[in-house]
Amino acid sequence: QTSTHRTERTDKLRTLDVFRGFTIVLMIFVNYGGGKYYFFKHAPWNGLTVADLVFPWFVWIMGVSMMFSLRSQFRKGVSKQVIICKIVKRSVILCCLGLFINGFSNSNLTTLRIPGVLQRLGGCYFVIGIMETLLFVNPEDLSQEDWGGWFMFRDVVKSWLQWSIVIGLASVQCIVTYVLVVPGCPRGYLGPGGLHDYNAHSNCTGGAAAYIDQLVFSPAHLYKGSTARNIYQNTVSHDPEGLLGYLTSMLLLEFGVAAGRVLITYEGHKNRLVRMLGWAFTSGVVGAVLCGFKKEDGIVPVNKNLWSLSYVLVTACFAFVLFAALYVIVDGCKKWDGGPFSFAGYNSILLYVGHELTKGVFPFGWTPVGPYHGTYLFVSLWGTSLWMFIAYLWHKKHFYVTI
Fold this sequence. Notes:
mainly alpha, two-stranded antiparallel ribbon, 16 helices
């Protein structure tokens, strides 16, 4: 159930809301056209642009917030059963909101898109939330006498089972992607189909991921567009929020949980920063090795449409680095209170739903006059700034909506 309350924000870690707010603002700007600049558009297939960072960062910060929420609830004596019920309720609400947004532009039930951004968030939150609740260990209950030299790595060691599970799920995604036999397509095909490879595999867009979605949902209930269509002229439906990508998304969410676990386990800014940058280095190097430090090559190319393992690792790296930088400025040196991004972070779900429903609707957007970057940029900035101003007004009224 969605709750609306008029209370002061009491978050001790401002960086959480600043990061979340920056991400939703960037998402609004990208979804409102991004000035028609190529780096504010999703990569046609393989590769990474600024636009490709936004959704993964939402998944990641959800994991960070989850650890603070679990610690708070366990401190209050809330039982695991009650917490799990809340997780289930929140997951269902997110999925229902996602279907509502999809249905807002297409109310025909025979062609309604089923996958979506909020559906992906809800599904991953459901699995990882329940897992972390059942396996939660209060860092305050751990003593150095019992751990000895391993005490400085207690956040990782105590979560070995969670990591085993999510790495196993990500491994399943890789195995299915490269092993599953897709009729009429080469095994392990990762391309966009269409004109790719001189039209050799025109009907194989997305490989195993698209094949599974078509079997489960049917092409009629999948995303009809494609970031690769303008270049490769593919015709097969492929949904970037399809089922197989849930498995690697859960790994990304666990990386956010790891950051949250660092923050609730260790005191002192240096201790926290060193560990977060260590996670950034590890995920970044592994992701870069998988993609061969290149855009197109490597064992696992960086690909948002498929939510490839390298894509998840690289975007997690950027999330750790950005969060660490914000943490130094906002909570470490206290040189910035986070505004105006923190205002957007307080009501991120409301801003997401609102901007999706008003996309292209005046006064949030309109058809620019003339094919110039300047006119498109003005429209994108105007719509984004308008939502930031609305978020500021909500904050001044102490009006927050949470799920």
